[in-house]
Backbone:
């Protein structure tokens, strides 16, 4: 299988073999350094079975005794040995067999911040990567790694251009610091193919905490409103954009305080539907234990309050529910859609009351996190079918045909098992 990801011509969306490709990513930062090859294969099979099609993983996440990547721990592979890189190769090749795109980070951002990777040696490392993976068509690149590019733009421009010149067909993005987007620093970068933002792990009331990881730009205040990043980046350029790190399932709200409540499957659904229905080209899910491959039997304390064994966490509810959004998008010609707040009678609502509306001349999608009734102007959609979907189970109920100009939507008729629901007209 070729598995070559491209940009859909004339649209801010991805494509494969000339057809729209909905990015459904999973976060697996320590895939290469924390578990065995056989365990990595087990992880990849699980994700492929759940409908994921992109895996975000770091080639060099930390350097033993020198630079640790964001507090995460790993088994300490010798990154300078051919054995380690053959280990990576085998996992990348298994992903290709399973139809998975590997979004590879050359290094975590902390290694650049420490100066271990710098302008003097980036060309050597970049050429090594470009040569090693030039024939693996399921590889794309993610530069950055939880880092603000300011102060390092020259470094990332040099690496990005080198990788793009070596393999022009390979897509390149940038994974930024929390509550930031690649558009803040790299909107004019000639090597960047798509924008990625990290909406992060904080609640509305935690977006201005004065903590070490607060940012000094207006994006830091978007927080849970991850749809705002989409609108910002869609206005900034014609590139695709997506949330590459929203709140992970089962991570403490605010990230650093284990006593805080944890983000749930319902919360991760909200981030997914909000951003995609604002025009994002896909979405990346994450689980606290899985992204670091936490094993309580190791005797090591899990980062960010991780408690569950990663193999058990693979099947947390949110991971299995992401495919329902992907399947819903595939049911229509979604690249023709756009955010459509104008269809909401009474206007848009704030924060968790928001009703995310995405529509074209042929379909309407509306997602309500609160589960409260709302009404739509459906005068352009006469004769189309009305469906109510439960995003927790994937079940759908057909509730009739559009035969009026206004549609009052009540989730009770769908028998939803949780308070959020999706309406579709098509």
Residues:
């Amino acid at each position: 299988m070729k598995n070559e990801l491209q940009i859909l011509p004339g649209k801010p969306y991805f494509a494969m073999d000339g057809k729209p490709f909905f990015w459904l990513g999973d976060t697996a930062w320590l895939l290469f350094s924390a578990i065995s090859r056989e365990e990595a294969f087990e992880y990849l099979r699980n994700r492929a079975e759940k409908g994921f099609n992109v895996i975000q993983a770091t080639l060099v996440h930390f350097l033993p005794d020198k630079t640790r990547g964001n507090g995460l721990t790993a088994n300490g592979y010798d990154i300078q040995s051919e054995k380690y890189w053959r280990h990576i190769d085998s996992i990348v090749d298994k992903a290709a067999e399973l139809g998975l795109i590997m979004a590879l980070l050359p290094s975590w951002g902390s290694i650049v911040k420490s100066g271990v990777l710098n302008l003097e040696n980036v060309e050597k490392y970049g050429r090594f990567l470009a040569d090693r993976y030039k024939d693996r068509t399921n590889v794309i690149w993610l530069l950055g790694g939880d880092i603000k590019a300011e102060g390092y733009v020259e470094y990332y421009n040099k690496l990005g251009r080198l990788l793009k010149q070596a393999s022009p067909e390979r897509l390149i993005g940038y994974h930024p610091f929390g509550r930031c987007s690649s558009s803040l620093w790299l909107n004019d970068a000639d090597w960047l193919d798509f924008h990625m933002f990290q909406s992060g792990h904080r609640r509305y009331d935690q977006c201005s905490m004065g903590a070490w990881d607060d940012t000094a730009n207006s994006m830091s205040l978007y927080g849970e409103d991850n749809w705002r990043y989409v609108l910002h980046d869609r206005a900034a350029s014609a590139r695709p954009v997506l949330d590459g790190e929203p709140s992970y399932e089962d991570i403490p709200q605010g990230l650093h305080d284990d006593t805080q409540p944890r983000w749930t499957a319902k919360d991760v659904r909200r981030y997914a539907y909000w951003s995609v229905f604002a025009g994002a080209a896909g979405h990346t899910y994450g689980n606290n234990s899985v992204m670091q491959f936490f094993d309580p039997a190791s005797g090591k304390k899990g980062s960010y309050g991780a408690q569950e064994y990663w193999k058990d966490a693979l099947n947390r509810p949110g991971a299995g529910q992401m495919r329902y959004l992907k399947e819903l998008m595939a049911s229509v010609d979604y690249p023709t859609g756009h955010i459509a707040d104008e269809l909401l009678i009474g206007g848009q609502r704030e924060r968790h009351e928001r009703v995310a509306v995405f529509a074209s001349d042929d379909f309407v999608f509306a997602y309500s996190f609160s589960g409260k009734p709302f009404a739509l102007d459906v005068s352009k959609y006469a004769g189309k079918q009305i469906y109510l979907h439960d995003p927790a189970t994937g079940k759908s109920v057909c509730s009739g045909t559009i035969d009026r100009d206004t549609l009052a939507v009540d989730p009770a008729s769908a028998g939803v098992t949780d308070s959020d629901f999706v309406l579709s007209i098509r």
